[in-house]
């Protein structure tokens, strides 16, 4: 026999309190649903922050610089900048794949630094950035990168004399490009195993893994790759936590090295000047004969 006892008066939850608790739970769930819906609908506006300003010709800012027109497989024509070497010419090209914000004008000083070490630098400008047509997405950026790699081949730089440098979300673009157009070596600055991991670090209270469309699975792309990879990241990065960059480094199939910069944040000046240019030299010296 099963005996069911009812709680005595002192054990019962007052009906008014129960109703208030129920309404509170419903409100929390409703707010969470709204947040998830906003992330699902507006996610690309949250991921990509393009400066759409048409920045004009590189020749206006850099003697010897050239504008290149990149033609993507889905029919877009994108403008990118080719920066010639200003030091002793190494006959090596660097394809620079930027992060999610700004435009190519904001990376021109870094391109000059890299070029001063003897490299030809192609500053890629994604669709929707810097006066280019289109809207950014994971698939779209992958096509933009392939068009850039093809342009460097047309300029006479075979893959064995080409390096890729990826910045932030550009590391995800770079990692995918390695699977289709492998270069001599890759430098990844502030990379991540997957954009889902970054989203979870930023929004730990939301099920972002269920709604995120653009995922950039870098670890998946690089795990079996033979292309040498150099990873750089800072310990004070509040966009891509340093632990995620370290996790990616641990999963790379052919890790050339990992450089951790104490106290460096995500967009600190160190990443846009001589330090990074010297890291490109280190990579080239190790992978280009």
Explain what you see:
The chain is an alpha/beta fold and 289 residues long. The strands form 2 sheets. Strands 2-3-6-4-7-8-9-10 form an 8-stranded mixed sheet, sandwiched between helices. A two-stranded parallel ribbon has the order 1-5. The chain has helices at 15-47, 108-115, 138-154, 169-180, 195-202, 208-211, 218-222, 242-251, 274-287; strands spanning 49-50, 66-71, 77-83, 92-97, 101-102, 119-123, 162-167, 185-189, 229-234, 255-261. 38% of the residues lie in helices and 18% in strands. The relative contact order is 0.12. It contains 9 helices and 10 strands. The chain is globular, with a radius of gyration of 24 Å.
